[in-house]
Amino acid sequence: MKIDLRQRDRQPELMDDPALDAEQHRHALSGLSRVNRFSRSNAILWPAIREVHEHTRSRPLRILDIASGGGDVALGLAAKAWQNHVELEITGCDISPLAVEYATKLAEPFPLNLQFLEEDAIEGTLNGPYDIVMCSLFLHHLPEDDARVLLRRMQELATHRVLVNDLRRTRCGYALAWAGCRLLTRSPIVHTDGPLSVRAAFSIDEVRQLAEESGLNGATITTHWPQRFLLDWRPA
Fold it and tell me: Would the pTM of this model clear 0.90, i.e. be above it?
C-alpha cells in the first residue's frame, strides 16, 4: 500500500487507548525505551540542557518533561547529568496512571532527583516555573489546536528554554519507523504505532508555522538522526 505523506494523517494509536491491556502497555513502554535509546533522544536534548546549566550553577536546574511516558528519557538525562556533575531536578508528567507508575518504578533504584506525576498537559493544571520545559514524541499525537495550546503552556512555564523533540514526516522516517520498531522490540503495539506516528508527524515547515502561531518567535528548528527534529525556543 502506498503511503501519502504530503499531509498529516492522524489515526488513533493503540497506546492512546485507555482500555489497553496493562501488560501490553508495559511491554510497549519497554519497547519504546529501546527505540528512544537507538534514536539518541538524550543526545538531542542534552546540549541545550548543558548550556542552560552554565547560567544556573548556583542551584539545581529544574526541568519539566511533559508526556514523559515510561520515564526513560528523563531517567537517561538525569543519569547523564550525574555523570557530568550537573545538578538536575526533573519532574515528568503524563496523563496515563500506568505510565506514571511504570516510570516511578523504573527510577526507584537510582539516586537521582526524579519524580513523576499524573497530569493532563492540555486540560490539566501545570505549575511552574521551570528552567526548561521539554517534551519528546508527544507533539505529533495532537491536533493542531491542541499543539498550539501545548506550545503556549510550555512557553508560559519555561524561564530559559522550551525543547520539543519529535518525528519528521518523511518517507525515510516512515521506512525507519517500520523497520526499526520491528528490530528493536517485539511489542505489536509499537509495531503498529511507530509508522502511524510518522504519518501524524509535522513537517519542518509545519512545525515552524505552529511555533510562530503559538508565540514562540525566534525558535530554531534543527534536524537530527534518525529523522528527528528539535524545536528550541528561549525567551528574548
Answer: yes
Q: 10-residue block means of pLDDT along the chain (236 residues)?
A: 88 93 96 92 95 86 97 96 93 97 95 94 92 97 97 97 97 95 96 97 97 97 96 94
User: Could you write out the DSSP letters of every residue in 17-40?
Assistant: -TTS-HHHHHHHHHHHHHHHHHHT
pLDDT of residue 128: 87
Please report which residue ranges of the chain form alpha helices under DSSP H. Answer: 22-39, 41-53, 72-83, 97-107, 144-157, 171-184, 188-200, 204-213
The hierarchical CATH code for the domain 17-233 is 3.40.50.150
Provide the grid cell at 212. Answer: 510562530
* Whole-number Å distance between alpha carbons of 203 and 7: 9
Of 134, 142, 132, 144, residue with least CA distance to 164: 134
Exposed / middle / buried, residue 23 (Cβ in 10 Å: 0-12, 13-18, 19+)? exposed
Measure the CA–CA gap between 61 and 81, rounded to whole angstroms: 10
CA atoms within 13 A on the CB side of 185: 26
Largest CA distance in the chain: 56
**Which residue, chain included where needed, has cell 499525537?**
141
